[in-house]
Specification:
The protein is mainly β and about 300 residues long. The chain has 1 helix and 21 strands. About 0% of the residues lie in helices and about 40% in strands.
Length: about 300
């Protein structure tokens, strides 16, 4: 179910993990020879506005240094359509590089970034070093690239975001190269309604699901990389979770992504292939602006799947 009440809209993205049971495969943290998945989250921006491109991982593996290169290119039309007016007038280089942040629990990651304009694309390149080797010691957002979108782009324009494998490399805390599995996505220029970062001072998240699939109470994590916050959790009622949170400096949701992560053990009796709706209660789910006003929102529900 989706409810659109723009112009400021948000989607609460939920990360479910059932690591308590053998029926859910558990990642070894990337410490073996398994490739480390680097994923570019989809990005959305308005003409002339800010765009945050988030690079994340799905397994912790401490990184000491590295280089990440993202290629930005207009998504090609089918060849049979030929050249369009949009192809001839839209900018090949839609972004201006502003900054890059690489996350380290020790806050010691030093970064340098630049954006090169090519004939058919742009290449954003960021190099970083962390003396403590603590980058990606916890999985989640590894880095965020901040750009400004050219005001001449049109709502509905799309650009491919691709990790350049030749110019992307990471070195772990022991000085060994990390085998990578890059995943790409798309930058979309929005019109009116969208999902994007904005500062939040607090709020409440209320979730419901079929209690039969749960093997215990869920745990909740609000990752500080998405902004500072404190929270209280009420899971006393089976199949229902209420998270109240506050952000004293209104920095929460300053980086787009999975702002609330939930880990829930799966019931031993839950059958493989079964699923349960995972629903945001619209009456008990809201975010507050820095002035304490409720943000107009778009809610997107999910599903708990037993695999």
């Amino acid at each position: 179910m989706r409810r659109f009440r723009s112009p400021f809209a948000f989607v609460l993205m939920l990360l479910l993990a059932g690591a308590a049971l053998a029926k859910i495969p558990v990642d070894d943290g990337g410490a073996s020879s398994k490739p480390l998945v680097l994923r570019l989250n989809p990005a959305i921006g308005a003409p002339g506005g800010l765009v945050a491109v988030v690079l994340r991982t799905y397994a912790p593996r401490p990184i000491r240094q590295g280089q990440v290169s993202i290629r930005v290119a207009r998504r090609p039309h089918p060849a049979k359509l030929g050249l369009t007016l949009d192809d001839l007038t839209a900018p090949v280089r839609p972004l201006t590089f502003l900054s890059a942040t690489v996350y380290s629990p020790k806050n010691d990651a030093l970064t340098q970034g630049l954006l090169n304009g090519l004939a058919d694309s742009q290449l954003a390149k960021v190099t970083f070093q962390s003396p403590s080797g603590s980058v990606n010691s916890a999985d989640g957002p590894l880095a965020v690239f901040l750009f400004r979108l050219d005001p001449s782009v049109q709502p509905g324009d799309t650009f491919d975001l691709t990790l350049d494998p030749v110019q992307t490399g990471l070195t772990d805390s022991a000085g060994k190269p990390v085998t990578l599995a890059p995943r790409s996505d798309v930058l979309t220029v929005r019109g009116v309604n969208t999902f994007e970062p904005f500062l939040v001072s607090g709020g409440r998240i209320t979730l419901t699901w079929n209690p039969a699939v749960a093997g215990g109470a869920p745990t909740v994590k609000l990752d500080p990389r998405y902004g500072r916050s404190t929270s209280t959790v009420d899971s006393s009622r089976p199949g229902r979770l209420v998270v109240d949170f506050k952000s004293a400096d209104a920095s929460f949701n300053s980086v787009p992504g999975t702002i609330v992560a939930i880990s829930m053990p799966v019931a031993a009796s839950a059958a493989i292939g079964s699923s349960s709706p995972f629903t945001l209660d619209p009456a008990g789910t809201y975010l507050l602006t820095r002035k304490g006003r409720k943000v107009r929102q778009a809610l997107q529900n999910g599903t708990v799947s037993i695999q």
